[in-house]
Write a structure and sequence with these properties.
Two copies of one chain form a homodimer. With 406 residues, chain A is an alpha/beta fold. The first copy, chain A, contains 13 helices and 17 strands. In chain A, a hairpin with a 4-residue loop joins strand 4 and strand 5.
């Protein structure tokens, strides 16, 4: 008799962004006159079109697929060399980080990688996560049976170590008291938009090396860093090659949310119990994955061309102008607000002691603005709210005007 | 202290096709004068370019991504409605199968789906597989800790039920004596190219329903069926909606091995321990996956247009001409050979009692032909060898001529 994976049944409710989508759809149906007024600053989805260099690269690759002489079948499991080399050269070597092309695993996005990476670790590992946190880290560990039981009152899992990120510590976690095995870190942070200095990150690397922990470092938002002394990669820290996996995405720098491309770095120096994690992830990729589409990998390569880089800077600049507009507008209006300087996320305290979901409903009903309730990211997110800079400039201005008028 | 998933260490050697690739590369390096003579009929990778209708659809979709008004960000987790509806109408309703668009989960390929599907089942399920079998089914269950221990002598896992497919039973398995929980079936079969009649498949569906088993039915090669009375979908059988998941691919009908598109069908009638598997897979998709690229889903839609369908028939016809050429040529040359009528695979008995890997080395060294050793697919594959019809016609003719001259 077949048995289900009953860890799935422990998950409370549906995936956060599915819940939001359903609530917005229900509101739009109940209020058809307001439907067109809705401004979505909730899910972190981009709105700007792909840039000319990337479009040209994709057209070229499509044409190659039409010709027997240039047609490509299965891609190499770990990604085409042309893309892996462009990544190693531009994202790492140009910054003085020692990462080789064959330590890069190309994938269809950082969400998939951040969900799948836990598979190469035993179910008896204890994870530590920032609180609030991107839900995928926790949910995928729940599915694997690593999280224990859920306490509805506190919104926490019995076997997960939570590291609170609060206004008091500048939304950067302290080293945990209880020793974890795997540590998920994300900087610039989703959802708070906070960052970490290089010195502070070095402390995490040293801690991981001293305690034989592995850090899973999500750097999906590194392109948004505008300040010096904020590391773009964990490999800027000494010793990180021995303890850290890094996840990257093309979604937020190049607008690839609907294109799907990302990568994971696993240095060959990183061993656990005498086994190279590189070998385990290569085996997973080879067995369960068949490579990112050729056309998409060529689009990724174009991101690193001179014209591609210039266009991407323009794209990021566009969203960062939105971020600054939201940040300053809300500050002026008297909101308690942070983030938005090195990240496309603005982290907002709900006024008058409102809960996150109450504020969500309030904004949707009162000014037709969709944001993301902070409590959806963890208990320390309660009473907070995330807005994103990924809308159009015009919508962003309209949204801030509405918020100011509340 | 971090711990690895030590199930990975139980896996013997590397993934079958990686091993073959390494052997061929080593041969090419050691024999530079023979390098250009190598004909690859090993891995099931297509060689024909994409057809005009699909190319046009992709160019159009690329252009849409360049325009703010038509740009698409995140796709719906489960796939765009336009594609899911085209699949439901053409692959199912047109054949009288009751499958709705919202029972279809679009993905980046059947390899990923067939590797990931086991996740929604508990680790205490016992799987049954055909022997020989596509290695992904077994390897992914090993990684999840469901396979027990490996016996090098027999090449089998202690907790897996093997269902031998031999010349004696026409390479179609008998119902297992020991009761499994999950049953993997693949028809038309990879690697043997064998098929199953509708009546025979109905027996499996009845067996699964009587014993509360779930059938994972891999129909990636259904487009190659040329004979009547061979079911294209398991949902042609009565009661299959209550016990069967079906996996499909665009790789082998439309030449999408480097494009990456597939889908999984989970009927809403299919419950295990009172839970709909549809809900569990939806949760997995929503949490660990971010949808197939918009451009690729438009390419998939084009496969179902009138011109797309005609082109795909031409593509399949091209490869089936190869299959017939191999099958008949090898028969003429006195080989014991089967498959190739409803599948792009030809299953060949190595001559003179040679082992599969000895025959692999013999063919590579003697006539520079790369095939796949049958023993790589399981113990009953020993002394067999798989050739594929996916080469060019010219290379296929050259290969058969060489094999005839052995």
């Amino acid at each position: 008799m077949a048995k289900i994976n009953d860890n799935y049944l422990k998950l409370p409710g549906s995936y956060l962004f599915s819940t939001i989508a359903k609530k917005v759809a229900a509101y739009a149906e109940a209020n058809p006159d307001k439907k067109d007024e809705i401004i979505r600053l909730g899910i972190g989805d981009v709105t700007r079109p792909l840039t000319p260099t990337i479009i040209a690269a994709m057209h070229k690759a499509v044409d190659e697929m039409a010709d027997e002489a240039t047609f490509r079948g299965y891609a190499p499991d770990l990604g085409y060399e042309f893309l892996r080399k462009a990544i190693a050269d531009n994202d790492y070597k140009a910054r003085g980080c020692e990462v080789e092309a064959d330590e890069i695993f190309v994938s269809d996005g950082a969400k998939c990688d951040s969900g799948n990476i836990q598979e190469i670790f035993g179910t008896d590992n204890k994870i530590a996560v920032c609180d609030p946190v991107y839900p995928v880290y926790v949910d995928t560990n729940v599915m694997a049976g690593r999280a224990g039981t859920y306490d509805e009152k506190t919104g926490t899992w019995s076997d997960v170590i939570y590291m609170p990120c609060t206004a008091e510590n500048g939304f950067a976690p302290e080293l945990p008291e209880e020793k974890p095995d795997l540590i998920y870190l994300c900087f610039p942070n989703n959802p708070t938009g906070a960052t970490i200095t290089k010195d502070a990150l070095q402390k995490w690397v040293d801690y991981a090396n001293s305690n034989s922990c592995v850090i899973i470092y999500d750097a999906a938002y590194e392109a948004y860093i505008s300040e010096d002394n904020v590391p773009h990669s964990i490999y800027e820290c000494e010793g990180a090659r021995k303890c850290a996996i890094e996840l990257r995405s093309f979604s937020k720098n190049a607008g690839f949310t609907g294109v799907r491309l990302g990568f994971t770095v696993i240095p060959k120096d990183l061993t656990v119990e005498g086994t190279r994690l590189h070998a385990l992830w290569a085996r997973r990729h080879g067995t369960k994955y068949n490579g990112a589409p050729y056309i998409i990998q060529r689009a990724g390569e174009a991101v690193y061309s001179e014209s591609g880089k210039a266009e991407i800077r323009g794209l990021v600049g566009y969203y960062m102008k939105n971020a600054a507009y939201i940040l300053n507008g809300l500050k002026d209006a008297g909101f308690e607000v942070s983030g938005g300087v090195n990240a496309p996320y603005i982290w907002l305290k709900a006024p008058d002691g409102m809960s996150s979901w109450d504020f969500f409903d309030y904004l949707l009903n009162k000014v037709q603005i969709v944001g993301t309730p902070g409590s959806g990211f963890g208990p320390s997110g309660e009473t907070y709210f995330r807005l994103t800079a990924f809308g159009s400039y015009e919508n962003t201005v309209r949204a801030v005007d509405r918020l100011k008028g509340l």
